[in-house]
Amino acid sequence: MGEKHKRTWPEEVGAKEQRKLRARKEDRGVWFGLGMFGLVGWSVAIPTLIGIALGVWLDRKWESTASWTLTGVFVGVFVGCLNAWYWIKRESRKE
Fold first, then answer.
1. Do residues 52 and 72 make contact, with C-beta atoms less than 8 angstroms apart?
2. What are phi and psi of 65, to 5 degrees?
3. pLDDT tens digits for 73-94?
4. Cα–Cα distance between 15 and 42 in angstroms, integer?
């Protein structure tokens, strides 16, 4: 197990407090927030658009009772949300 699991509760609280204080000192500002907002938006939008395009192509290629476009939307949104979660998790570790 890692170093994090060996800490006592007061040590863990102290480490989180130090991390919070460091993050406040950095003062990333509005532009960082807008950039992060854009990154999350694009990380969801691009896979969704790819899913839609692939679904439309499959609907034209093979006729089916199921809508490939709708399936592509769901898969694209799901992949995009996983992608956004990854980026947010990555940025929160830096703090």
1. yes
2. -75, -25
3. 999 999 999 999 988 888 777 6
4. 33
